[in-house]
């Protein structure tokens, strides 16, 4: 747009310059005039190449009553409805040409402000379950200082987010419904519990669950493997080697081996690793090629013994004194007098 206006302005001044110099050059020779016209034609060609639009498509200001593009920056009232980039170029051209005489008008401000909607991006509005204005933020003057001046928000209303919260709520409701109506029906499949001997199933696996769908979080993937040393059927040498290899994983107070794992994202993977590691430890303990008999046991886990402290009897706090309640004493005396009078009235 700037190139188009500059070209029209140049042609207007160039035509005046050409007429003045042709009249003054009538006394010159015909060859000099032809040379001058050829040079001017080159200048015209260069200027026309500068324009982005062909000059044949331009409409003169007198045709159809349309605004002359070369004079459009002088009439800000005609800018309304134009694209934002064109309005900005016209504003810069107006400032550049008018220089000190430039004075912004209301028409120019209105035209520039009308382009804000096309330049600003659209913001997605939040979906509220209930379109009720917040009484606290609108009618009460206790809004925090950092939140003052911000747009109105419905903080007391339930906001529908991406869908995770309603889905979690439906899942909890479904679990509650199953616990109330379906789990009691399992009573007809009740059987007596006959636990197997601990020597046949020595391992105890402990899982964790927070009843969420994220099975790979830090709580749900954590497992614990426990086994009592007496259930492994090991001789004293094998037990000694097992304790040496277990290190701080063996509790000498409870005589149990505990192994926890949370290195893998799923609980089943952690169980597989813990069971495999325990079997390797057990096989190595049963191999008595190296008994570790010369290595003493280190017992880092010890039972904390609490020594009773005998304080002197003089340190005992005296019993609190009962405050004198005059009202209770008066009531008790009045009841005693009435009881005595009643007993005298019924006694023979």
Helices and strands in order:
Blueprint: H1 2-24, H2 30-50, H3 84-98, H4 106-113, H5 116-119, E1 127-128, H6 135-139, E2 159-160, H7 164-181, E3 204-206, E4 223-228, H8 236-246, E5 250-251, E6 256-261, H9 267-286, H10 326-346
Antiparallel strand pairs: 1-2, 3-4, 4-6, 5-6
Helix pairs in contact: 1-2, 8-9
Domain Small ribosomal subunit protein mS35 mitochondrial conserved: 193-316
Keywords: Ribonucleoprotein, Ribosomal protein
Protein name: 37S ribosomal protein S24, mitochondrial
How would you sum up this structure, described in words?
It is a single chain. The chain is α+β, with helices and mostly antiparallel strands and 348 residues long. Among the domains are: 71-114, no CATH class; 203-286, 2-Layer Sandwich (Double Stranded RNA Binding Domain). Helix content is 42%, strand content 6%. The protein contains ten helices and six strands; from the N terminus they run αααααβαβαββαββαα. It has helices at 2-24, 30-50, 84-98, 106-113, 116-119, 135-139, 164-181, 236-246, 267-286, 326-346, and strands spanning 127-128, 159-160, 204-206, 223-228, 250-251, 256-261. A four-stranded antiparallel beta sheet has the order 3-4-6-5. Strands 1-2 form a two-stranded antiparallel sheet. Strand 5 (250-251) and strand 6 (256-261) form a beta hairpin. Helix 1 (2-24) runs antiparallel to helix 2 (30-50) and helix 8 (236-246) packs across helix 9. It is flat, with a radius of gyration of 49 Å. Mean pLDDT is 76; it is low at 1-7, 21-33, 39-65 and 128-133.
């Amino acid at each position: 747009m700037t190139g188009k206006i500059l070209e029209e302005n140049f042609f207007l001044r160039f035509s005046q310059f050409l007429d003045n110099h042709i009249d003054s050059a009538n006394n010159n020779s015909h060859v000099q005039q032809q040379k001058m016209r050829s040079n001017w034609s080159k200048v015209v060609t260069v200027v026309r190449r500068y324009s982005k639009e062909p000059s044949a498509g331009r409409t003169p200001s007198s045709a159809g009553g349309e605004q002359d593009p070369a004079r459009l920056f002088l009439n800000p009232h005609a800018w309304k409805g134009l694209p934002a980039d064109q309005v900005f170029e016209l504003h810069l051209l107006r400032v550049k040409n008018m220089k000190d005489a430039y004075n912004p008008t209301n028409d120019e401000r209105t035209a520039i402000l009308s382009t804000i909607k096309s330049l600003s991006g659209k913001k997605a509005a939040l979906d509220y379950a209930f379109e009720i204005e917040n009484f606290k933020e609108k009618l009460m003057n206790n809004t925090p200082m950092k939140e003052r001046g911000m747009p109105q928000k419905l903080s007391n209303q339930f906001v529908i987010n991406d869908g995770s919260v309603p889905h979690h709520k439906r899942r909890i409701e479904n679990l509650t419904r199953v616990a109330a109506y379906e789990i009691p029906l399992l009573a007809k499949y009740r059987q007596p519990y006959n636990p197997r001997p601990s020597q046949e199933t020595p391992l105890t696996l402990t899982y964790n669950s927070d009843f969420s769908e994220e099975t790979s979080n830090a709580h749900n993937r954590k497992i614990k493997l426990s086994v009592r040393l007496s259930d492994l059927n090991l001789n004293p040498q094998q037990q000694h080697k097992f304790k040496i290899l277990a290190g701080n994983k063996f509790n000498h107070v409870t005589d149990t081996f505990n192994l926890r794992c949370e290195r893998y994202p799923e609980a089943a993977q952690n169980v597989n690793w813990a069971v495999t590691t325990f079997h390797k430890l057990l096989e190595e303990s049963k191999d008595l090629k190296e008994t570790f008999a010369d290595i003493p046991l280190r017992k880092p886990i010890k039972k904390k013994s609490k020594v009773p402290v005998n304080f002197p009897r003089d340190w005992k706090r005296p019993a609190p004194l009962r405050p004198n309640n005059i009202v209770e004493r008066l009531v008790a005396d009045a009841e005693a007098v009435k009881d005595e009078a009643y007993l005298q009235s019924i006694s023979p």
